[in-house]
Amino acid sequence: MSADAPPTYTVQELNSSIGSLLERGFAPRFVVDATVSRPQVKKGHLWMTLTDGDASISAVAWASKLRQLAYTPGDGEGVRVVGKLNFWATRASLAVQVLDIRPSLSTVQRRFEAVRAQLEQEGVIDPARRRPLPAYPSRIALLTSVPSSALADMLRTARERWPLTELLVLAIPVQGEVAGRISEVLTQLYAASSRLGIKAIVLARGGGNREDLMVFDDDALCRLLAQSPVPLVTGIGHEDDLTVADLVADHRAATPTAAIVRLLPHRFQALEDVTLRQRRWRDQRHWVLQRERQQLKHRQQQWSQHHPRIVLQQRRDRLEQRLQLLAALAPSRWLARGFAMLERPSGEVLRSVHEIETGESLIVRLNDGRVDVQATAIHARDRSA
Predict the structure, then answer these.
(1) N or C: less crowded end of the chain, CB within 10 Å?
(2) Are 223 and 186 in contact (CB under 8 A)?
(3) Which tens digits make up the pLDDT trace of 73-94?
(4) pTM score
């Protein structure tokens, strides 16, 4: 065969050669960002098309892997796929074998906004529904993954702040399509909360990617959270991670540890509060006693003014004043000063010459006696003079 002649293959040889080239020249694992199109399960395997709008490629998640995945994409959802190439030499077919698949941030945000709008319309998300947290809860329920660093942090913080509160830890899965399993635990807890003396519930999950928190955007789970018989506190992810569950809760904390800090008082702060309350109580008691003493003193003064002896003395004083006034106005006082009083024999006091008739017998009363006289002439004073 000439050196310039093209190689000759059978179909099987050609496909095998292509497969070998792909195996040698392509990365064993890669990441691809794409949009899912027409996902469907066939014989337990999830088949889909990955596209970016300009190109597309088939992808498959085998049944064994599909059961391990925390997320199953829907049609039109953005995803990030970790995969490798599968090449079938018998028919020269190429597909991405899915090793892991996660929703893109845009997909997470769209789901969040859709569920949020729906629950706001239903009245499930309403700030007016939020209840105050108990001041010193005797027992609270912690729903989180077990074991986890989030749980360890919450237990340590609870011991440091307020060791008198009893913690009931309930293990739940916190990632993947596990809303149903969380709902089962919540339903059982709600039914027993009164018997167990639960005063508050903490739903917590440690930090991670926002995509890992999608379970807390599940509409059915969030409706159930809104039915909590006691105040509910969420501590999910980091401070920047906001889920629908946070909007439904009575209080949202930035982290699991912050949820415990928000719910439990610090023992030192509680001691200061008790000391302050005692001081306020003493001050109030002193003020009340002072007020009562003043009122008692005022009443004693009022009572003393109405004592029979005081009343009698007051009447005596008034009588003495009147007697003095009468004495000052008595005719004898005027007579002693040189004045005279003219009267008829009947005792009628005369005040004007017009009351006297000529020849009438009269009595002139002086300080040391009387003079009987007879009016011989009457001279009235000229008023015009």
Answers:
(1) C
(2) no
(3) 999 999 999 999 999 888 888 9
(4) 0.63
